[in-house]
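Why this split exists: single-chain examples teach little about how molecules sit against one another. For that reason, every record in the complexes split bundles all components of an assembly together and asks for one structure covering all of them. Below is a record exactly as it appears in the raw files.
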Amino acid sequence: MLLADAASPVFSWNLLTDFQEMWSYPFMVNAFRAGAIVAVVSAAVGWFMVLRRQTFAGHTLSVAAFPGASLATLLGVSATFGYFGFCVAAALVIALLRRKGRDSGAEESAVTGTVQAFALACGFLFITLYKGLLSGPESLLFGSFLGITTGQVTVLAVVGALVLAVLALIGRPLLFASVDPEVAAGRGVPVRLLATVFLVLLGAATAEAGQITGTLLVFALMVVPAATAQQLTARPGLSLLLAVLIALASCWFGLIAAYYQPYPLGFFVTAFAFGGYVLAHLGRAVHDLLGRGRGPLAIGSAA
Amino acid sequence: MTTTATELPGADALQPGVPVVELGGVAVRVGGRTLWSDVDLTVGEGEFTAVLGPNGVGKSTLVKLLLGMVPAAAGQARVLGAAPGQGNPRVGYLPQRRSFDASLRIRGTDVVRLGLDGDRWGVPLPGLRSARRRADAQRVDEVIELVGAGGYAHRPIGQCSGGEQQRLLIAQALVRRPRLLLLDEPLDSLDLPNQSAVAALLGRICHQEGVAVLMVAHDVNPILHHLDRVVYIAEGGAVTGTPAEVITSQTLTRLYRTPVEVLRTSDGRLVVVGQPEAPAVHVDRHAASAPAAAGAAGGDRAAR
């Protein structure tokens, strides 16, 4: 996992030369590209996931990426197929089972938990069947930025663009259906269809994030930036934009840190995102203490 | 829909003489059981109507009938001169009390705004159609002012009190300038000062803005002196008329075919005593919580 043959590079604090050095390696260029795509897509989808309180479903979909990737490796096909195939399939299974379960929250989390347990067990089986030749499940579970090919970046970009396009199309009705489902349904918004479409988007986004942060750490890019942004502002548009910027920053800072330090990428990305979350909480606590009743940090003034 | 904000309030008023709601001998069957039948009701522009009756009798179903979500099994129903459901853009609807999670970080303004354009697909691009967006924003401000929510509409809605949330939700239901506003127990779980404040707000919307208001109510007292008309539903049938005609011992005794007494307290509040329980078998949304609801309702049917 470590950059053994890169002669342990040293961070010089001159960002220009640092980036020139990092980007002289094609795999690093690919890592930064893939990181940027994944950060934008997962933060945007994750923002809605946090708003809809579907983080458990998101976690399950990310766990489904694990058997997907390990089965793909076992069969000798590209892991990308495994990620997308299993995540989207798991999203459809959850949507289908939920449809029968009639909106009851307890039912939903039980169904989701059932799918998650089975997915994890299958992943373990596939890893075992591979008989140890796999470098280890760590990179699947906790992420790696080595060996991201240009072809992989292209797939990430195409799927990411598709996810963002669909999200832009359904964004406003989805927000309405998430905040106020009953009135949205009364206004003719197809609430149930949107829920299914959103789960599929969530599947695609977790599959993307899983390829950078590993399947266990997708929340670093899906939940943490959105939760941080929602602490900072209650304006939907601004909050979504902030989430994307925070995810992008966490991801790129994480890549830089992982390049210069012999520790895993997943840790750095998560640590930066978590640091931002703690700062946002502290900032809001201070703000609430100073100006009671002035509302959330009001950035801008027009509605 | 798209020009709502720029129209004059009365520009699309009905032709004079066409009632906002017109029910003639309407019956409703849900799950094979007739909830009520022979309901006649005419609501004119700017009239305030309350739908009263014991729990589980089908009060909310009347609202759903007017929205076109439940068909009429008999009789004729017209809303704004058309079949129910067809005029829904001109009907504002406030479902039974829902509260927002305290951690929901969306402003009251945004919730009201969603009532205006939440069903539009696509994202608004900066710079495009700015005239319409300005008009929309202006309409949202206007309606927030109307319900008196200006002081807290910029706060995350989860941090607003129950009464504040209810006012914002009324603003959301009004933002498209409906001709008819349907509310399902809007005073439920508000404290007494908020009940009378929201009732007064609804009376003002009704009589000053000319919006016909029809609301399902559990207790008639907070709204009594704003009311023009009352529909009292019992198992099977219903009585319609002014509160003074309907909420009397004679009328309710005739309706329920069992002695019912209406008492008037010294401060003018009405207490209905001896009103029978709703049937034990429920088929509507009350079904899941029927025992709890029946227990909670004991307060206003004392003396059993």
